[in-house]
């Protein structure tokens, strides 16, 4: 690396991080406003959801006053936003517990589910993508390409349903529901994690295998790799020294975006298998018009996505300075 490139990279990376952080804060603010507005426009509120449609109007009014729902929407939103800046997401309208406690209970479960999927995603996507690209046109490449194309074309809920039918109903080797008894943790019964993790992983893996395959094929056919082969450099060294350093950095931001999807807890996977994560908490809170919980979950998911996108951009700059100094 030349001194000029080093200086430019040192100056460009902090600027990139600062710009991304400012943009991320704007995204979080927009997400909070959109979610709050959507819940306000939905019919009913937490009081009517809790008491039912046939409840006494006076009881509904009393509960609305107790929950603070009689205040103007803008005031309620600004109060919640000010508290969220200090880490206070308010109190759940339904359970009357601090929202931070609700998030803390579910976030660990979601992080476990998404983390397992990420740990499997990265090596499998890189390994299968490289293996397929280096065997372009052969039977192995056609099998991998056909399988990934098929997975990309199938919705996530269909994959989950097929997995349940095969492994839970027909074979009976895995549970169909990822139920966690009170007082226990998901790792106490690791078999309940298998089907949700595979469901989460399937579509993400297919996309990323195809991404890595395309990048490796392009770089492998380039002048640098071909010249190295003509000079007698062994193929494995060509791949490690010339192909991967150029093919992987462009894929890193995409990897991180998918990691954000996985760590955020896929809504379909968690609700399909009854897994007690953030996504299922969001569904329950939405049904009960529990606005503080809905906003907090949405904000946490958006923050994870923003940070992982930032991580992907930073890694891409560090591994390939040309990507960073031109921004």
TrEMBL record:
CDD domains, sorted: TM_PBP2 (cd06261)
Source taxon at top rank: Bacteria
Occurrences of domain ABC transmembrane type-1 (ranges): 107-312
Tell me the compartments it is located in: Cell membrane
Q: Which PROSITE patterns match?
A: ABC_TM1
Membrane-spanning segments: 17-38, 111-134, 146-172, 192-209, 255-276, 296-319
Keyword entries, A-Z: Cell membrane, Membrane, Transmembrane, Transmembrane helix, Transport
How the protein sits in the membrane? Multi-pass membrane protein
Q: Family, per the entry?
A: Belongs to the binding-protein-dependent transport system permease family.
The entry's protein name is ABC transmembrane type-1 domain-containing protein
Source species of the chain: Saccharothrix yanglingensis
């Amino acid at each position: 690396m030349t001194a000029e490139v080093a200086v430019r990279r040192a100056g460009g990376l902090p600027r990139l991080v600062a710009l991304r952080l400012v943009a991320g804060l704007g995204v979080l603010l927009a997400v909070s406003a959109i979610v709050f507005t959507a819940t306000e426009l939905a019919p009913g509120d937490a009081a009517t959801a809790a008491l039912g449609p046939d409840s006494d109007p006076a009881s509904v009014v009393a509960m609305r006053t107790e929950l603070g729902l009689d205040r103007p929407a803008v005031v309620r939103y600004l109060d919640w936003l000010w508290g969220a800046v200090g880490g206070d997401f308010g109190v759940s309208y339904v359970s009357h517990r601090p929202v931070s406690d609700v998030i803390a209970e579910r976030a660990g479960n979601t992080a476990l589910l998404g983390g397992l999927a990420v740990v499997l995603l990265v090596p499998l996507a890189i390994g299968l993508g490289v293996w397929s690209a280096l065997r372009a046109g052969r039977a192995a490449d056609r099998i991998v390409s056909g399988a990934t194309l098929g997975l990309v074309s199938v919705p996530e809920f269909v994959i989950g349903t097929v997995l349940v039918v095969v492994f839970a109903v027909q074979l009976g080797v895995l549970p169909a529901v990822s139920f966690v008894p009170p007082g226990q943790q998901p790792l106490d019964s690791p078999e309940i994690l298998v089907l949700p993790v595979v469901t989460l992983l399937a579509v993400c893996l297919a996309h990323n295998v195809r991404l890595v395959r395309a990048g490796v094929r392009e770089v492998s056919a380039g002048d640098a790799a071909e010249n190295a082969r003509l000079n007698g450099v062994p193929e494995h060294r060509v791949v490690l020294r010339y192909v991967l350093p150029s093919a992987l950095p462009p894929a890193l931001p995409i990897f991180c975006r998918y990691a954000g999807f996985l760590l955020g807890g896929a809504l379909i996977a968690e609700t399909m298998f009854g897994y007690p994560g953030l996504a299922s908490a969001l569904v329950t809170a939405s049904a009960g018009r529990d606005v503080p919980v809905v906003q907090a979950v949405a904000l946490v998911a958006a923050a994870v996505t923003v940070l992982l996108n930032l991580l992907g951009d930073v890694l891409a700059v560090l591994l390939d300075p040309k990507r960073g100094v031109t921004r």
